[in-house]
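Troubleshooting entry. Yesterday's outputs looked truncated, so today I'm pasting the complete records for two proteins to confirm everything comes through intact. If either block looks cut off, that's the bug. Protein one:
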Amino acid sequence: MLNKAVEEDRINHGKKTFKEREEVKETKEIRVSTTDPKCGFMSRENKQEMFCYLDHRTTDMKFNLNSDVYVTPGNVHDSVPYLSRLDRQVQRFGFKVEAVALDSSYLTSPICKGLSDRNILESSLIEDFILLLAYFLNGNLHTIKDVTYTFVPITKN
């Protein structure tokens, strides 16, 4: 999907398309728990290696209430469910998200493309986020802060 969008953009700007490349499929050994095969093995820098689940909670900063909770196996990167959880909250609660603040682990091409497709501004720097927050402060500010994702959708009514 992203490759298709890149190709369309290159054509629209009069550039040559990329040559087709054969996808390289690597196999890797996946550790599976003998007691709970659905959990995932988490192995991250400066963290304990273990079989676990990850809990993603979204908290409304205005009222300090959880607006979303989602559990994934420990071997799923935090950024993987990001866009689908954002879409779920937009649909379920009618949030009109105009901007999000992300930490660097969410600066992946699919997330940036997904936010662009949704016309959502994003910032990965705290200074930029403060500027976005100052821009949207108008008395009708509604924000969400996700404990795991560290994203903050900002909306105006």
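Protein two, checking that the full record survives here as well:
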Amino acid sequence: MTATATKPAQKPMSTSTATAAKPTKQQAPIDFELTTARYNGALFNIPEEDIVDNGPLMSGSVTVDEVRIPLSAFFAQSKETGTEYMNLSLGSKDGVHYHGRLFRNTSKKSPRSPDYTGFVTLLAVPPGVKFSDEEWDEAVRLQVFGRKVRNADNSVRIELNIAPQRSLEPVGDDEVAF
């Protein structure tokens, strides 16, 4: 079962026939599997000399159905709490894209805990379109987990795992065999 987070007038794009050689420009919403699928990606530092005002600090991609979707991360800080985070933009700059956030985990429970957690909201945003706060609140979210990893050349990346959120509902006795 797949679901696409779109406004009713939009049609989902089937990404299963696209090639995966390089990030591709998305002109239609991405068809996300919302039950069991897991997506992988990575963010890499943009060299300091290439960073521009209001531009991303990191860039990379996420693989969805063998297609690499561009991903950018922009530094942000909450006006209310001062919490620092990265605003995520998944998709091409001039095509349909999705937004999310990635927060640094300041108190990890164990060494195996992710260094970063966050979400991607599955509300397909065409260029120039604005959605209401209510539409953002009602949209499905995928969880994002990130781990700092050192590459073979000693540079670093954030390795990302993206998955559907688990239900917070307790498991009933009628849902298990025993």
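Both blocks look complete. Sanity check on protein two: The longest strand covers residues 67-77.
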